[in-house]
Here is the input.
Amino acid sequence: MLQFMLLFSRQGKLRLQKWYVPYQDKLKKKVTRELISTVLGRKPKMCNFLEWRDLKVVYKRYAKFHFCCAIEDTDNELLTLEIIHRYVELLDKYFGSVCELDIIFNFEKAYFMLDELLIGGEIQETSKKNVLKAIQAQDLLQEAELDMQIR
Here is the structure.
């Protein structure tokens, strides 16, 4: 089960975080700081898995982003890499070629996609088509709501 997912830039700015296990805010900040500095300090040719505290950390760099997930000791690292890749594919499909500004200005869409893909740290939907349909349906609802407010 995923414990949390972090998305941060190469400069170390946190752009998205999703916690599936409760942590105190102070601990979340500490964990985030530690992991960002650890992952950014690693060389590109190094393994994308590392053992950290009592968890395994799986990360992958795509363009200017680092996607970082913490999983339990018994979980499969390759499956976690596949989940990260599926999320990146969804972001790319929805935004075109996703960039940092897309995440900054449309963070609610990025969170919604993650929520459609994962629930409680477990994969919910494997079909990209179904996730994108849900997102498009939400976009239509949002547009209809805006039209109602304008009138």
The first helix runs from residue 25 to 40. The chain has five helices and seven strands. Strands lie at 2-9, 14-19, 49-52, 55-62, 65-71, 118-119, 122-123.
